[in-house]
Amino acid sequence: MADGAGPSRRGVRARPSLRLKPMAALNEIPFIKGHGTANDFVIVADLLGKRDLTAAEVRFLCDRHTGIGADGVLRVVRTEHVPEFSKMAASAEFFMDYRNADGSIAQMCGNGARVFIRYLDAVGLITESDVVIATRAGLRECKMNSDLSITVDMGPATQPQTDAIPLVGIKDELWPAVAVLMPNPHAVTFVENLDDIGSLETPPPVLPPTIFTDGVNVEFVVQRGPNHVAMRVHERGAGETMSCGTGACAVAWAASERYPNMDLTANEGVRVDVPGGTVVVRMLANGHLTLTGPATLVARGTVLLPA
């Protein structure tokens, strides 16, 4: 035994080091958290388009127990660095790469678009109140209003080319729904009481399956009064959320087709109450729907993605 050494411990392995790896060796990225009427998002800046997120990474970021927690991820990229959409770069400097919580891709997200604009303004990437952004649904004109709300031109509401009427399962009954594309698919179901539909954590069955082959968002709606409705929603790839922007547009459009006292062209638009607050939908002269509501940034930090 060497001088000054303690007793030998034959057969016992040395304890592994508990030190963390140097931070530079970790898969660390900055993020900002925001929400629009409690529809919440993790925002990841990737201006040069070098950090495309995998579906597994998106699921990790959105996990409310082991990640940050959100209904979806907004990746901010300069449009010129997104090859399949680079032709839109002349009209829109920034591309909104939106992913659902399960890692799947969606064409558009109305609440996410407002949060996207709020982020661009907060970090100094835009200086004007009127901004055009690129999305998978095309170019979207946005406006920051003096009351701090944000308005997004969501494009027109259309319907699938089918004669079939969607039927949505609620408990043991099938209810007729209205099929709407914004362009995300929606099945809008009018009910008497929002509490009677029960939990929306699992997707309600929608028949026949041939109408929405890529899944569908399901909205349940009640009329509150003239130009006023309330809704709950199950979003495909996310579950029940506190709000859905494209869903609010689909609901307002379907309500205006159903009720004579719903005037989408009125200056005040149609008020849509969601569990997370209120948004307003209005139809422009060109048939496009606008979505107006709040957008808030709540936190920023860094996150260690799984290796």
TrEMBL record:
Annotated GO biological process: lysine biosynthetic process via diaminopimelate
Entry annotated with the keyword Isomerase: yes
A cellular component annotation (GO) from this entry: cytosol
GO molecular function terms listed in the Swiss-Prot or TrEMBL record: diaminopimelate epimerase activity
Keywords: Amino-acid biosynthesis, Isomerase, Lysine biosynthesis
PROSITE patterns: DAP_EPIMERASE (PS01326)
Amino-acid biosynthesis is among the record's keywords: yes
TM segment ranges: none
Record's catalysed reaction(s): (2S,6S)-2,6-diaminopimelate = meso-2,6-diaminopimelate
UniProt-listed Pfam families: DAP_epimerase
The enzyme's E.C. designation: 5.1.1.7
Pathway: Amino-acid biosynthesis; L-lysine biosynthesis via DAP pathway; DL-2,6-diaminopimelate from LL-2,6-diaminopimelate: step 1/1
Family: Belongs to the diaminopimelate epimerase family.
NCBIfam families reported in the protein's UniProt record: DapF
Protein name, as recorded: diaminopimelate epimerase
